[in-house]
Amino acid sequence: MTDGFEFPFPLSTLLGRVQAVFAIEYDRRIAELGIEGLSLALGTNVLRHLHGAEGVRLSRLVDLSGVTKQAISQQVAHLEAHGYVVVEPDPADSRAKLVRLTDKGRWSQDTARPVFADLEADWQKRFGRTEIRDLRLLLEGILTELGDTNLAPRTRRAGRRQGP
């Protein structure tokens, strides 16, 4: 049912295309920095959940990422083959596997993290600071309303607002 507005593309198409354009540009920029074999998808689903020396269970990565166990297993195998993570038995449960960052993995996080801010700043220049801020707030609000605690902004959960 529509409210009188006719749009040529479904919202899902628009959201998907914007994400794809962002991901292509992000991937290009990290490749220019010498980070090989990584992508925004690998960072989003796996690397962003790994911190310091502690490991994360493979099953927990599935829960955090919201993608299938098969997808996470393939992504972790790719990251391990490229030297970004190691997979080890969990000392607390030998049936479970822990995924840990290597030195290369920590370096890639430190090197790639500023690319997000740079890319967002470029979009603010191109599309307007207020428009990008409003888009961010709208998307964060949608995620919060839908109860997506994995993607809900940490700054809001901590009671702080990010940005101006």
In brief:
It is built from 7 helices and 3 strands.
Would you give an account of this structure?
- The chain has helices at residues 11-32, 40-45, 58-65, 69-81, 103-127, 129-145, 154-157; strands at residues 56-57, 85-90, 93-101.
- It is mainly alpha-helical and 164 residues long.
- It has a 3-stranded antiparallel β-sheet.
- A hairpin with a 2-residue loop joins strand 2 and strand 3.
- Helix 1 (11-32) packs across helix 5 and helix 5 (103-127) packs across helix 6.
- The chain starts with 10 loop residues before the first helix and ends in a 7-residue tail after the last helix.
- The relative contact order is 0.10.
Question: Helices, strands, pairings?
Answer:
Blueprint: H1 11-32, H2 40-45, E1 56-57, H3 58-65, H4 69-81, E2 85-90, E3 93-101, H5 103-127, H6 129-145, H7 154-157
Antiparallel strand pairs: 1-3, 2-3
Helix pairs in contact: 1-5, 5-6
